[in-house]
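Q: Please design a sequence for this.
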C-alpha cells in the first residue's frame, strides 16, 4: 500500500505492458493517470484499484477500469 500521491504515466504503463504484468494499485491518497494514457493501455496494465482517495483519469480510462475499482 502506498501513502500519498500515485501517478501513472504512459511510459510507465507501457513498460508494465512490455513486461506482461498488471498492477494492483492500493493506496491512501490520490491516484492519477496522465491525460495521454489511453483507455486500452490502462485496461491492459491495471489489474485493480483499491484506494482511499480520489482517482484522476480521463472519463474513458475510468470507464475502462470500472469493474476493477473497489
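A: Design:
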Amino acid at each position: 500500500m502506498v501513502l500519498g500521491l500515485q501517478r501513472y504515466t504512459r511510459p510507465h504503463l507501457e513498460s508494465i505492458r512490455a513486461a506482461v504484468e498488471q498492477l494492483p494499485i492500493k493506496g491512501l491518497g490520490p491516484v492519477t493517470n496522465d491525460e495521454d494514457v489511453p483507455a486500452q493501455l490502462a485496461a491492459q496494465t491495471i489489474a485493480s484499484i483499491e484506494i482511499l482517495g480520489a482517482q484522476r483519469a480521463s472519463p474513458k480510462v475510468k470507464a475502462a477500469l470500472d469493474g476493477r475499482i473497489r
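Q: Thanks. Anything notable?
A: DSSP finds three helices and six strands in the chain. The CA atoms of residues 39 and 64 lie 6 Å apart.
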